[in-house]
Specification:
By secondary structure, this protein is an all-alpha fold. The chain is 63% helix and 0% strand. It has 6 helices and no strands.
Length: 150
């Protein structure tokens, strides 16, 4: 992981901070709504906080529920197998329910199922971290802890 820093330009820093929080809220909405994605918004949030708020970047990447998975992805370690299975199962449950029971336009249902197939293929091709592999990297040792930034 990269070491967080604050952008020297205050306008850019505050803009990134606001975008980071908006994407975080959209990610949390994505936990509840099957159509809204969660992971891309949390990764965008981490990228914005990386350059705007070291405190919130550390908070997000060290969070007890999703911090480990964000760190896995940012370090290039991939997605754990259990999470892949959960993601793909939820994807297919929501897509099939929507396309077969709710959507009445045939070509739209086919498109939704095609997107789900492509996403499933992409997720399956992501690397899986080994159980022995640590989550942290050398760069993470230099990160600012939330207490140091206050």
């Amino acid at each position: 992981m990269k070491t967080p820093y604050q952008h020297p330009n205050p306008a850019i820093r505050y803009t990134l901070f606001v975008i980071g929080w908006i994407s975080f809220v959209l990610g949390m909405i994505g936990l509840l709504l099957p159509v809204v994605p969660t992971t891309p918004f949390l990764l965008l949030s981490a990228a914005c906080f990386l350059r705007s708020s070291p405190r919130f970047y550390v908070w997000l990447t060290e969070h007890r529920w999703w911090g480990k998975y964000i760190r896995y992805y940012l370090n290039g370690q991939g997605i754990p197998r259990r999470i892949k299975i959960l993601i793909i199962a939820m994807l297919w449950i929501t897509i099939l329910t929507s396309s077969l029971l709710i959507v009445k336009i045939h070509w739209l249902s086919v498109m939704m199922i095609s997107v789900a197939a492509i996403m499933s293929f992409y997720i399956m091709r992501q690397p899986e971290p080994s159980a022995d592999e640590p989550i942290t990297t050398d760069a993470e040792k230099t990160t600012i802890s939330p207490k140091e930034n206050q």
